[in-house]
Amino acid sequence: MKRGLSILAVFAATAVAASCSSASDSGGSSSAEPRSGGHITVGIIAPCGLDKAQTSGCNFTNVEVVDNLTEQLPDTGEVVPWLAESWEVSPDGKSYVFHLKDGVTFSNGEKFDADAVKLNFDNVVELGKQGRAFQSSAYLQGYQGSTVVDPRTIKVTFENPKAGFLQALSEKPLGIIAPETINTKTPEERLAQGVIGSGPFVISNVVQDQKIEVERRDDYQWSSPKNAHKGAAYLDGITFQILPENGVRTGALLSDQIQVATTVPSNDSENIKAQGFDIVSRSSAGVVYTYYANVKDPVLGDEAVRKAIQVGIDRNEIHDTVFDEYQKVPTSILSTTHPNFTDLSAGLAYNPDKAKQILDSAGWIPGGDGIREKDGQKLSVGIQFSASSDKPLHELAQQELKKIGVDLRIDQVSAGELTTNRNAGNWQLLYGNLTRPDPDVLVSSFAPGYSQFFTKDYDPQLQDLLAAQSRELDPDKRNQQTAEIQRIIVEKGYAFPATEGSQTQAAGPKVHGLSFQAPWWPSYVDAWIES
């Protein structure tokens, strides 16, 4: 731990000197041709569990190490073949037959084949039974088994139609890892030490809570169809340096201690650009950053209160005050980069007069201090959160809601307390997002049995629609159902969108080829360094 603190201290100490430096041209605008070689250090915000079957977030390393059966193109949302060259879906949508690419190997030399795919799916289901694989096991809900037809053909069967399965296969929680990893490492070891994949990079070193290093795999020849080039990566290697503090990450970038900074702080972006650095971004393709309402709470169980809060939040003011140009004002519960986005900006427009009318009609009357009351109860709701970086947002929302007579209490707690209170149902508002470019992301966020926020039955119409879209194989019908789900969530105030949220990367002028996956995770297989 002392070593980790000393690294942070070096980065912090160089931040002031770095603020005087500058760069002459913009990264990404070079006319030079991509070249192989070189190494970059990428500053990331948090330690990452290195087995995405067990932890879906913080996908920086596994994007480079693990490949998938399918790929989702970021620009269109289309799901296309990758390690699975083709597939057939049964008419009832309950079974899938995949034809696998020949000649693919894992970095330890093992062959990628149908047996490996079956082992991976069975492993995810087993991890789910152990409570270790919340998201990946949900992707395989209803899994009845896999049948190896031959080394390059596998049949996967489900209890019910699985409309989102092909998209789920493009997500890193269902990335295919080498049998050796599953057979010889415990789940805990996989999280701590990493996995063996078939991807363009190989994990070479892990220093817990400090860094993860990956090296290029020279024989890599089965690139994702989203990549700008085929074959091996350009970079020799990447170090993912864990730098939780925003100022430290920015200072490290400006002083060339790191070459790429992720999760660029809004209050640093102008300074970074002014010194010749490029910033690229992608909105999270999923449920936007939102306040989830506990509909079982006595106050938020009142639909009138939720409807008033929905139009009592000034999202444009939040964007202009708290965020920067790389974030977007939300116009639905899904982001604009989600393939099934429906524009509901009219329902999210700031309208404090309408909010007051709704509350007046519901019997919530302003008290002497301006906060409304009903039957002796104050109109007071609390937002529990742990991340200090979210506090300015909550403070601004507090000011806005006070104007309509709602008292928003700001309760900062530890991450452990937050989890305990959430699991116990001891909360009113919680803040977060969920990334997945498929309608089933709404199931994960709003359906009891899958959601962390809605654990009990609450809206039969909404629950029926969530279940129906998961089984609907007709894309147009599924899109219509998803649009109706979004409308209900916004109209009835089950969640209050605050910002779309985006992943950002800042880099110096000699770093090029930064890109993103469809969900929003950075990808570095096309990255290269100008000499």
Describe the protein.
- By secondary structure, the protein is an alpha+beta fold.
- A 7-stranded mixed beta sheet has the order 8-9-10-1-11-21-12. Strands 18-17-19-13-20 form a 5-stranded mixed beta sheet, sandwiched between helices. Strands 4-5-7-6 form a 4-stranded antiparallel beta sheet, covered by helices on one side.
- A hairpin with a 5-residue loop joins strand 23 (515-516) and strand 24.
- Helix 10 runs antiparallel to helix 12 and helix 15 runs antiparallel to helix 16 (460-471).
- The longest helix is centred in the N-terminal third of the chain and has 17 residues, at 2-18.
- It starts with a helix and ends with a strand.
- The relative contact order is 0.17.
Distance between the termini: 36 Å
Helical fraction equals 25-40%
Main beta sheet strand tally, sense and closure: 7 strands, mixed
Kindly state the number of beta strands: 25
User: Rg to the nearest angstrom?
Assistant: 24 Å
Mean pLDDT: 91
Strand arrangement across the biggest beta sheet? 8-9-10-1-11-21-12
Stretches where pLDDT falls below 50 for ≥5 residues?
A: 1-27
Number of helices, counting only DSSP H or I runs of 4 residues or more: 17
Percent of residues in beta strands? 15-25%
Shape: globular
- The structure class reads alpha+beta
Oligomer: single chain
